[in-house]
Amino acid sequence: MMRTATKADSAPRRLRGRNAVCRAVESLEPRRLLASVTWTSANGGNWTDPNNWTDSSGVHRVPGALDDVVISPPGAQTIAVNGAQAALSVTMIGDDTLNIDVNGALTIGGNSTIKSLTVSTLGTLNSNGTLTLPGSASLGHLGVLGGSGKVVVGGTMTFSGAPSYIRTTVELTGSLSGTASPGAFLRFDAADAKVRVLNGGVASFRAGGADASNGGVGVVAETGGSIILAASGGAVSADGGTINVNNDANYGSGNSLTGSLKNATLNVGSGAYLNLGVNSSVSVSGNIVGAGAGVVYVATDSSLLLTADATFNFLADQFRLRGRSTIEGNGTLTNNGSIWVDGSGYFTLKTKLLNYGTYRNGYATYFGGTAGELRNKSGGLIKGSGTFDHFDATVTAPGLFLESGSTLHASDGGIGFGSLLPLNITDSVIQANNGNGLSFSGKNTTINGVDFQVTGGGLLSFVDGSVTSLAGMIKGSGAIDQIGVATGAKITLPAAGATIATASAGLIRLFSPQIDGPGKLTINAGSSVGVQGTPILTTEILANGGFNLDRGS
Prior knowledge:
The chain is mainly beta. The protein has 1 helix and 61 strands. It has a 61-stranded mixed sheet that branches. The longest helix is centred in the first third of the chain and has 21 residues, at about 5-25. The protein is rod-shaped, with a radius of gyration of 37 Å.
């Protein structure tokens, strides 16, 4: 039979339950709840002095990691942080200054605002929330700004260290600048550490730049942001923003530069230098603009990587490609100014370059990979004394194109076209004068509708082994002008034919050439052509001028 519970049965159970609750309450350890701790000193002082603080319960104590710190005394005070300190948040919106002393460290867990901040030599401020700096801030020698959060600089921030460390993300809408002495620079040595220069923000480097060689990102000018370089740049990049190089600056001088320009503008001002040091690599999609006497050096074993289309716009001889430098990538480089391959070594082009300005080949331009291509567009000028060729016999790059309306001018001794180069010349003007020469040695050169102007001692030479398809006009003037077709060279005349026209004293010399094809070679009245050696002529030559065959020479 089932037994029915009575009041006497249930009473002890309720008592036992109350006793259990009481024991549980008694077993709880005492703990401090989240509190607000306020600075109450009238004269400034040390963070570590409990007499300078009063919490919400009226107790004088030093804040801890769970406390919201409020510093807003009357007047302007300086609060010094020594040793390792912590707070949940810090609110300082008055004229007071928080000074992280030498070897001092402050870790802030949440969002904070500090109007005036000084991080002294070897000091550290770590913010794991968003730290807003609306006033002035400074970062000393070996001082550290870090944490898992971010720092928003809306006022002014200076750094004086050689280096000062950034180990967090800094968002800059105000100004950031380094001191000129002792050559202050920023070092980014934590993953993803960077300064984002946002709309209206300006980062200025007076003596040093940014070093991200140990894993950081560096300084990035985003849309509306601007970076001013008056010295070495280092890890300085732009993503939609602007980099201004001026005041005799060297961007990357002597450094391994790994910056990037993405949909950005790089302005190289008067007297400035954009110097890509040895083994540097900069990716570009945007504009690089030169003003005044600004110069860009791409140094030995360095490269510009075109991640998308880019435009260069420099005045005469400002953009200099030095020994063993490279431009490569999937983009197209448009030159509206001046590019100079200087005499220090060869340059390799592994992307498409459209030249509307001046391209000065002072040493050697090699075409590499499968995309290396230089197109001299209408109005474009190629000049110099260097060589154009493929880097080696395995290269399948398109090579050099002289398009309609463009000019090639042999200067500084002349231009040579190597035996591996596929050369296409159409409706252009080619000039050889003042003792300079043009030398063709390519196996597959095509010349259509070209106006060769050989004047003042110039030399147009088709060297041994070259094969050239020639359709155009060759003009010469002066007694020592020469167009030489060397032994073993071959000129093929397409159906369009070719015309030779020189002044009465002009001279064209053909040295044992082979001239064939369905076209006609017309020698205009007043012209003089001399053939030496043993020529092979299998085409029609219409000699309205002088045609002299000297087989004994």
